Amino acid sequence: YFIYASLSFLLFSGPACGLQITSTDSTSIEKASGQIVKLDCQYTLAAEDSGPLDIEWSLQPSDNQKKEEVVIVYSGDRAFEHYYEPLKGRVHFNSPDPKNGDASMNIMGLKATDTGTYQCKVKKVPGISSRKFFLTVMVRPSKPRCYAEGQTHAGKDMVLRCSSVEGTQPLQYVWERTTGNKLLPPLAVLDPVGGTMSLRNATEVASGTYKCIAKNRVGTEECLVEVNITQPPNTAGVIAGVVICILLVLILLALLLFCCCRARNKKKYEKEIAYEIREDVPPPKSRVSTARSFTSVGSQRSSLGSMSPSNLHEYTKPQYDKIPPEEYVRPPSHAPIPPPSRMAGPNLSRMGAIPVMVPAQNRDGSIV
């Protein structure tokens, strides 16, 4: 049985004296994005390995139907590092001279797309050896956003939420209290996957500052949220105050409207009274016109009294009619003065009047 086991080991593992990769580090590696990773590939040569040295790093496809991608090559004492475009400028050999037994490869500025299976193959005829590495590039959680939902009144339910936009799953959320006794409320319900903490029937004791920590295998980030639980307001008093304010506003509007209407009607009434006064009362006559009219009437009387039959034929009716009847004015005693009677020529002659010429007057009593 022992001899059979030894033969099986030699058959499947190859000769112990040929080219061998001696690295013993883990082949499953997890790194955060942005970091640098070293894929360790140390090897030893045997005396019979006399062929040219060739080192090749390749990215193995996850699908067997696809071909592997060559990442970097050392051949003919020269390194070739620009085979794989996504890693161009970010990959190189760890040793400046890989033929000295160090075929390790470094990848800088890791990205999530760099995740995959990498193979190191060292060949120096007749010796050949290879080793595979399973690299997982994880994204650390981004800074989470913390906020509270629901009413912050005593006796109500509220929820504290915490969420990171970026981060490789699985993400886990942990809530802590940073003020007071630093103990979470007894009725708090935590959801480490969803990142929520529910506070049921919250009281003022639950007020304080809470911290949420988002973490995965490659990093952590945290945020803070302030919770202030207060007593509910007096709803009845608020409603009564609102109603009273509305009524006061309506009363003020009504008073303003009443005053405007009253002022408008008063102004309209004053205009109507002014129009009536202007229509009913004629304008007063000037004192000069009244005095001239009175003097004219007096001179007319004296002229009529001095008429004689010899000059009566020189007086004509049209000239006598030039004195309009409305120009007669009352004397200072306010007694009406009768207009002069128009007598015919024969009657005036019998009375011994002497005809005279009366000068014409305009409407205001001036002599033309």
Automatic annotation (TrEMBL):
Keywords for the protein's UniProt record, in alphabetical order: Cell adhesion, Cell junction, Cell membrane, Disulfide bond, Glycoprotein, Immunoglobulin domain, Membrane, Receptor, Repeat, Signal, Tight junction, Transmembrane, Transmembrane helix
Protein name, as recorded: Coxsackievirus and adenovirus receptor homolog
Start and end residues of each Ig-like domain: 15-136, 141-230
Protein source organism: Sinocyclocheilus grahami
SMART domains found in the cross-reference section: IG, IGc2, IGv
GO cellular component: adherens junction; basolateral plasma membrane; bicellular tight junction; intercalated disc
Comp. bias regions, Polar residues: 287-313
InterPro entries associated with the record: EJ_Adhesion_Regulator, Ig-like_dom, Ig-like_dom_sf, Ig-like_fold, Ig_sub, Ig_sub2, Ig_V-set
Transmembrane segments: 238-261
